[in-house]
Design brief:
By secondary structure, the chain is an alpha+beta fold. It has a single domain, classed as 4-Layer Sandwich (Double-stranded beta-helix), CATH 3.60.130.10. Strands 1-2-3-4-14-7-16-6-5 form a 9-stranded mixed sheet, sandwiched between helices. A hairpin with a 1-residue loop joins β5 and β6. The two termini are about 25 Å apart.
């Protein structure tokens, strides 16, 4: 959990934004390469707070990519028509790369609406992502409704579970399928054969174990790649999934980020879920650019030998 006291690092400050998660970083220009000591401070803050918002940035695509690669190699986005110039940069927008305000039935806008469901980026990969880094180019005016990005802390959510729920969830998995986004949003065109071959469905444990966090556990599931949990009947799996979605909405787990121009928000996909809050897509333009830091390996579940040993099993 985040603490209340800001940290001063001479040139910049790191200040928690909520009891649940997140901190803002003020006074640091990330358009230039960061020195090793600054990177070390940011890595520690990222581990502690799970989400960092760097205020008042001015970045082009190349600078955002350069900043992001300081934390690891980047993923390539599966569908090139949803990127902006570089295949590493995903255009999270209801505006085309050419500046056209897109119609609500445009497939790129429909894809954004699917992001309104709780999810963690790249869960559809065998090795999911470590972090997402999103830059606010055009954001909604202060007096508008919606447009925030919500985050939910899965470490805190798991810790608060009743013991019987922990026991129930421990052996379960969820299928994550990029193609199944079409099942949730049927007006989207089908994936190409090459896209399907590159991203077959995968399964991940619903309880994730984090060796980099002393083998603590978190919940790990999504609502934008499927709506079921495996390991039980189909109807029971759907009911459990609905329960999980309601559960992670609890205010004590959540923080909702209201975007300001120049915000660069970096979050930990290993321990947070996030979702886009709906807004009036026809009235307002919203343009965000996302890069995604690749993960280092497959998800560890409770029955991995290392996890069992850490749990005393």
């Amino acid at each position: 959990m985040a603490t209340a006291a800001p940290s001063d690092h001479s040139d910049f400050t790191v200040t928690p934004v909520s009891p649940a998660l997140g901190a803002q970083v003020v006074g640091l220009d990330v358009s230039r390469p960061l020195d090793p000591s600054t990177l070390a401070v940011l890595r520690d803050a990222f581990q502690d707070h799970h989400m960092l918002c760097f205020r008042d940035q001015r970045l082009d695509d190349d600078q955002q990519v350069a900043f992001s690669t300081q934390f690891g190699p980047l993923e390539l986005f599966p569908e090139k028509d949803k990127t902006k110039g570089k295949i590493e940069v995903y255009n999270v927008a209801n505006v085309s790369p050419e500046g056209e305000h897109l119609a609500q039935d445009d497939q790129r806008v429909i894809f954004q609406r699917n992001n309104g469901r709780w999810h963690t980026d790249s869960s559809y990969r065998y090795i999911p992502s470590l972090a997402s880094i999103m830059y606010g180019v055009e954001v909604l005016p202060d007096d508008s409704e919606g447009g925030e990005t919500g985050f939910s802390n899965m470490l805190a959510a798991y810790a608060a579970l009743p013991d019987d729920k922990k026991v129930q969830l421990e052996p379960l998995h969820q299928v994550h399928s990029y193609a199944d986004i079409r099942r949730l949003e049927p007006t989207m065109p089908p994936m190409t054969a090459a896209e399907r071959d590159a991203l077959p469905p995968v399964t991940h444990p619903v309880v994730r174990v984090h060796p980099e966090r002393d083998y603590r556990r978190s919940l790990y599931f999504t609502a934008n790649t499927s709506l079921e949990i495996g390991g039980m009947t189909h109807e029971d799996g759907k009911a459990l999934h609905r329960w999980l979605v309601d559960y992670v909405n609890k205010p004590e787990f959540c923080y909702f980020h209201r975007w300001q121009p120049g915000d660069l928000v970096m979050w930990d996909n290993r321990v947070l879920l996030h979702r886009a809050i709906p807004y009036d897509y026809a009235r307002y333009r919203r343009v965000l650019r996302r890069t995604t830091v690749a993960g280092a390996g497959p998800i560890m579940g409770p029955f991995w030998p290392e996890a069992r040993k850490a749990a005393g099993g």
